Amino acid sequence: MKIAFIHPDLGIGGAERLIVDAAVGLLSLGHTVTVYTSRCDRKHCFEEVRDGTLDVIVKGDTIFPRTIFGRFAILCAILRQLHLTLFLLQYENTTYDAIFVDQLSFCVPLLRIGLDRWNSSPNGDRRSTPVRRKRKARILFYCHFPDKLLATRKSLIKRLYRLPFDAIEAYSTSRADILLVNSRYTQRMFRQEFPSIDRTPTVVYPCVSESEEKNEKVLKLVTDSGKGALVSVNRFEKKKGIDLAVRAYASLREAPGFAKTALLVAGGYDKVVQENVECLSELQGLCDKLGMEHTTVWDIENNLTLLRAALSSTSVVFCPSVSSPVRNALISGSRALTYTPTNEHFGIVPLEAMLMNVPVIATSTGGPLETVDDGVTGWLRAPDVGAWSSAFHRVLFEATDAELKMMGKQGRETVLKKFSRTEMAASFERAFLSASEFSSGDDTDAGQQPAIMRTPGLRDGAWIAILGCALYYCKYGLAFTVPSVSEVLVGSCIVLVVYYAFF
Questions:
Q1: Which residues share a beta bridge with 68?
Q2: Number of helices (H) and strands (E), helices first, in the chain?
Q3: Which of 400, 323, 254 is nearest to 49 (CA)?
Q4: Which of 67, 114, 363, 387 has the most CB atoms within 10 Å of its CB?
Q5: Distance set, CA 179 to CA 139, 174, 421, 440 (Å)
Q6: Percent of the chain with pLDDT over 90
Q7: What is the pLDDT of residue 404?
Q8: CB atoms near residue 56 (< 10 Å)
Q9: How much of the chain exceeds pLDDT 70, in percent?
Q10: Burial environment of residue 474 by CB neighbours within 10 A (0 to 12, 13 to 18, 19 or more)
Q11: SS3 143
Q12: Could you tell me whether strands 202-203 and 98-102 are parallel, antiparallel, or unpaired per DSSP bridges?
């Protein structure tokens, strides 16, 4: 099969790791894979992207910015994705058998329209005279987590602003031929947030790359430092709750032997992402407030002397924007990984640590409930400083090396059995092939899956009217008064016209 991936920003993160592993896995099964993305910094990406293992095409970054004065991030993300999708449909000469979309589903209706036209022409030539034939390309949408749940809604204006995007997300998601999610937790949230979609998405767990390349110099520095280290690996984002690890660790500073311990805080960091900059600054400020000495080491590969000094003289070491070999070295040299996010959709980092025989301390919420076996491969604790402080104390001062080694061994066995790249790629392949078999028929419509949106009723009509009022108010200044009948009608007409014009 010829498979195209559409992903917003191919940087360093859990979603990006999944895309890379899925693409490489499908390549290994003999498929042709191309990844389309709106942004890819070759200095801030995974090795498979940097070294050319994957064919990556970057488009959609020339017209629309990432934000407008720091706002309208979702609107800009949608426009960038649509720009990227139009490029794929209009200028690419390859006829794809399958399209893999993740994170944002807004391009799915556009893909359906474009692919129907694409495959209605002889030999996939969109300039030819259309002929009726079944649509070959199947669209898979992989939901890491409903986007509507990732947005903050602290004000009425923000809630009104999000209404149309939430509605379009539900509709566009429903238009995919194949729906997959990354965990049972996400599956439950999907069903809860999209009641109008009658299909239950299938769970396909992300995998862990079995490549354990480590920077041996960094690993030696950590292990030879004489300190029992805890390591946190997350993007520098506030929602990751890294401050929980800092606070829990700081609460142990009066414990005997604390001077022989360290907390390593590493992860994805991009200087152009304001969230990353603010998060690191706040964590540094928190250390100052708690009286914890800290050092930030940039570009570790070229600053080994600074890393050595930091490990010997400070308790908290920040390591922003580390490469995969350095990250693996930091994890391997630590007594345990601390995974702080609450209600994380899945969480790939705990699996990476388990693969390297390292126990995991994670919150007893979300994805880790499906990956970490409490008391066997690690510890699951409520996201509370007291509970985490107790877990840290056990790992640093109570647990023997033999005990931690046994937990690490059991964790590795779990990962190799349930979360391999081969198994994940095979699951995606089966999904594409089963959808293609289902779509057999003589024309485009014959191969469609049954409608998955419930028949519109009075509730839908009322909702559309309310949405129309919201849009009307947003455009004309939010005059917080009771809308007139004419205002309701005008707003509703706008919504209906846009709805039927584009979908």
A1: 71
A2: 18, 14
A3: 323
A4: 363
A5: 9, 8, 19, 19
A6: 53
A7: 95
A8: 21
A9: 82
A10: middle
A11: strand
A12: unpaired
Phi and psi at 448, nearest 5°, equal -70, 145
Residues contacting 155, CB < 8 A, separation 6+: none
| Nearest partner of 102 among 73, 45, 143, 48, judged by Cα | 143
- Over the Cα atoms of the chain, what is R_g? 25
Express each pLDDT in 38-91 by its tens digit. 998 888 888 899 888 999 999 888 888 888 887 888 888 999 999 999 899 887
Q: What domains are defined for the chain?
A: 2-207+424-454 (3.40.50.2000), 216-418 (3.40.50.2000), 456-503 (no CATH)
Question: What pLDDT sits at residue 484?
Answer: 58
Token digits for 236?
A: 């520098």
User: Using N-to-C axis directions, what is the helix angle for 156-174 and 73-91, rounded to 10°?
Assistant: 30
pLDDT at 415: 92
Give, in degrees to the nearest 5, the angle at Cα 430 between 424 and 435: 135
Contact 347, 371 (CB under 8 A): yes
- Please tell me the pTM assigned to this model: 0.70
Average pLDDT of the chain is 84
Mean pLDDT of 321-340: 93
- Neighbouring residues of 100: CB distance < 8 A, sequence distance ≥ 6: 3, 4, 5, 6, 19, 22, 140, 142, 428
Q: What separation, in Å, do the N-terminal and C-terminal C-alpha atoms of the chain show? A: 28
* pLDDT (average), residues 14-42: 92
Residue 206's SS3 state is: coil
Q: What is the DSSP string of 53-115?
A: SSEEEE-S-SSS-S-BTTB-HHHHHHHHHHHHHHHHHHH-----SEEEEES--TTHHHHHHHH
Please provide residue 38's backbone torsions phi and psi, each rounded to the nearest 5 degrees: -85, -20
